[in-house]
Amino acid sequence: MDTNGLLAALDEKASLEFLAQMLRHKSYSATPGERELAEWMVDRMHAIGLDAELTPVPGGRVNAIGRWRGDGAAGSGKSLLFNGHLDTNPVSEGWTVDPWGGLYDDEFIYGIGVSNMKAGDAAYYCAVKTLIDQGVRLSGDVVLTYVVGELQGGIGTVAAIEQGVKADYFVNAEPTDVKALTMHAGSFVFVIEITGNTRHLSKREEAADAIMAGCWLVPRINVMTFSGAASARHASINRAHVGVMRGGLGREMLEWRAPQVADFVRIQGSARYAPGQSEDGVMADLRALLDEMENALPGIRASVKINRNDDRPTMLPFEVALDNRIVRSVNEAYRQVRGAEQPTGALPPSAFFGTDAAHFYQRLGMPGVVCGPGGKYNTMPDERVDVGDYLDAIRVYMLTILAICS
Question: Which residues contact 93 (CB under 8 A, 6 or more apart)?
């Protein structure tokens, strides 16, 4: 098979215009526009000959699932699943271009959600379309999943898995700047409450100052790693960070009595931990740090709990072996497309993100890799993706499909 000829057959202008059309759909998470885009994707998959349908997601939402069926004998070809979400974050202040205009030039394509993650979504559709247009026949199936609710913990992907959607391997197209992410952290939000003992400032020597305790605690949390890391590589994606700290008098944290020492502080933060570690282990490490604080600051007491406000799935950690077939296939595809070695591994900052890759890994044991266009300009005003990265991602996906499914 002349793979160079197949790569050269990619219609770059049509591929950019397809992504631009996706961007013109205002598919905010859990809105009617999200469903409209899912319906549009089903129509586009039908148009190139895929079996495609809308499937239900809790909350009255829908995924768009398509399948390019291989023609080999049963079991003769491996199957490959692509995964990405259609819903986007809202537009922030500071945009200088139309967030839904589908605008592009020689350097960038712009739009809300283009990096997170419509460029990845469009790339695997265009990869399949190009191969079909060139008459390629595969032995194994290619499954295209366009899910919703990744921004709510992955409820769309979990629904698809529970409905039987699976394959031998997967590529999650979240933005990695076309690098191969083989490990990322699990995450959760924690809440710490610190209780002290108030006095008027004239007698603060007798007080136990909860705000001072919080000031002692926060920098120590922000440099934490956690016990039980399997290797230095695993420990490298350990991280905790405090994002909120409030204090004042009483659990209401009253602010009108500044002359008194604060006796209550509430802290909210997030923890990232590696495969092989656990929420329980992280919580034990946090508890040990609170014990140290209580010993160092007489009169201070503290508690910690995981913040679970709803029924969203937990964002778990993900890992695949560096020598797994899917990783080697993506690496080789990248090498052929770009003539260079693909950065591969637990790569920051992507290794601190959560993705739906974890659901396939944790629930089904599917080996996969996270690799997609976008990243550098993610979740910011004038969100954009390098045109070259988008087009190269299509080519990488084409070669990966051939390597796995032929």
Answer: 381
Same domain, 68 and 125: yes
Are 357 and 330 part of one and the same domain? yes
Q: Is the pLDDT of residue 312 over 80?
A: no
* Residue 372 covered by a domain: yes
Indicate yes or no: pTM above 0.90: yes
Domain termination residue (choose one: 267, 286, 306): 306
Q: Is the pLDDT score of 310 beyond 90?
A: no
- 199 and 164, same domain (yes or no): no
pLDDT of 76 > 80? The answer is no
Average pLDDT of the residues in 376-399: 97
- What pLDDT shows up at residue 62? 98
Whole-number Cα distances in Å, 16 to 60, 263, 388: 31, 58, 11
How many domains is the chain partitioned into structurally?
A: 2
Report if residue 52 sits inside a domain: yes
Q: Which of 254, 283, 306 is the C-terminal boundary of a domain?
A: 306
Residue 255 lies in a domain: yes
- The enclosing domain of 256 has a CATH number of 3.30.70.360
Task: Flag whether 311 is in a domain.
Answer: no
Kindly state whether residues 146 and 114 are assigned to the same domain.
Answer: yes
207 versus 313: which is more confidently predicted? Answer: 207
Find the domain containing 376 and state its range.
3-184+317-405
